[in-house]
Specification:
This protein is mainly alpha-helical. The protein has two domains: about 10-195 and about 310-340, Rossmann fold (3-Layer(aba) Sandwich); about 210-310, Tyrosyl-Transfer RNA Synthetase. About 55% of the residues lie in helices and about 5% in strands. The structure holds adenosine-5'-tetraphosphate. Adenosine-5'-tetraphosphate binds next to strand 1 and helix 2.
């Protein structure tokens, strides 16, 4: 039995092809920050490595969700990912709850993760401050995220800046497990874009744009917004009383910096070129018009493909079932390896 276990362990560690794992919650309307900080990069680099993109519905239920809305948001998010350009022939897109290894691995990792590590997470502390009563799952959110990543032996985790701390924690969880039970997990790295990593709220450029604040007027551009709504939100974006259009770390200029950052990620031009271009602009009104134009042009084809995909839900579900099958083929042997490591008896082993 021991030999059989050892053979299986080394078989999964032998994977040499670089893997990428990232997730997104179906927790509301996908906003421009999710797109520029994560999805756009996923699409651009999907052919380079072996990519797994997960719709993390188990993470979404760590805060209250209406069941009917959650079901719709999950399919809608899948349609957005495919509409944005994720190609099921190049990468694996799947729903977390359809691959049960994630929840099982999370339990095992819970048993090696000190609770103090979780209490220090800033996203937990922020959400805690916004709610009267919180679920255990909210505290445990980063352990489930660690399970998601570690089950795939992912080397890279492309995320926005807000998830940096969670990926750091995943590294700690992996190293601790490896120390306790022997080399089991690849220790992953966060891959964070230089610009676009933190798109700020249009109504308040000191707060990150977030699905949770989508109900606040003019906070976000949602990916499915019509051109008129996009134009309206961007025209109302908070700026400052000056008129200088340049990239800046000055908190006073956070609004202008945010608009320029959005413009930069979409146009893929250098800061110098952009500043030179805007040097003849007549104030922030011109800047907002140009930013609205590029955002509208970027999102138009996504919105059109989205509506086509949502008109055939059976096909969407078929694509997701295929993704889940591919994800199970990788994560289930890894889960068996984890179980062996901690001494759990697998069926048929006795
Ligand atoms: N404002 C942002 N700027 C850049 N990247 C962002 N991301 C989120 N907001 C921004 C990145 O989007 C990916 C998916 O995020 P998520 O759905 O897993 O959860 P989140 O980070 O908590 O995003 P939200 O929109 O703020 O959701 P809620 O309100 O539900 O918590 C991640 O890579 C994230 O970094």
């Amino acid at each position: 039995m021991e030999t059989k276990g050892k053979t299986k362990i080394s078989a999964t560690l032998k994977n040499t092809k670089k893997r990428v794992f990232s997730g997104i919650q179906p927790s509301g309307d996908v906003q421009l920050g999710n797109y520029l900080g994560a999805i756009k990069g996923w699409v651009e680099r999907q052919a380079e490595k072996e990519n797994f993109f997960c719709i993390v519905d188990l993470h979404a239920i760590t805060v209250p969700q209406d069941p009917k809305d959650l079901r719709h948001q999950t399919r809608s998010l899948a349609a957005i990912l495919f509409a944005a350009g994720l190609d099921p022939n190049k990468c694996t897109v799947f729903i977390q709850s359809q691959v049960t290894a994630h929840a099982e691995a999370c339990w095992i990792l819970n048993c090696t993760t000190p609770v103090g590590w979780l209490e220090r997470m800033t996203q937990y502390k922020d959400k805690l401050a916004r709610q009267e009563s919180i679920a255990t799952g909210l505290l445990d959110y980063p352990v489930l995220m660690a399970a998601d990543i570690l089950l795939y032996d992912a080397h890279e985790v492309p995320v926005g800046d807000d998830q940096r701390q969670h990926v750091e924690l995943t590294r700690d969880i992996a190293q601790r497990f490896n120390h306790l039970y022997g080399e089991t997990f690849v220790v992953p790295e966060a891959v964070i874009p230089e610009i676009g990593a933190r798109v700020m709220g249009l109504n308040d450029p000191t707060v990150k744009m977030s699905k949770s604040y989508a109900h606040i007027k003019d906070h976000a551009v949602n990916l499915l917004d019509e051109p008129k709504e996009i134009e309206r939100s961007i025209k109302r974006a908070v700026t400052d009383s000056g008129n200088e259009i340049r990239f800046s770390d000055d908190p006073e200029k956070a609004g202008v910096n945010n608009l320029l950052g959005i413009y930069k990620v979409i146009t893929d031009r250098s800061k110098e070129e952009i500043e030179a271009d805007f040097s003849t602009a007549r104030g922030y009104g011109d800047l907002k018009t140009r930013v609205a134009e590029v955002v509208i042009d970027e999102l138009r084809p996504i919105r059109e493909r989205y509506h086509a995909l949502m008109s055939d839900v059976a096909e969407l579900d078929r694509l997701l079932a295929r993704g889940a099958e591919q994800a199970r083929a990788v994560s289930e042997p890894k889960l068996e390896e984890i179980k062996r490591r901690v001494g759990l008896v697998l069926p048929g082993e006795l």
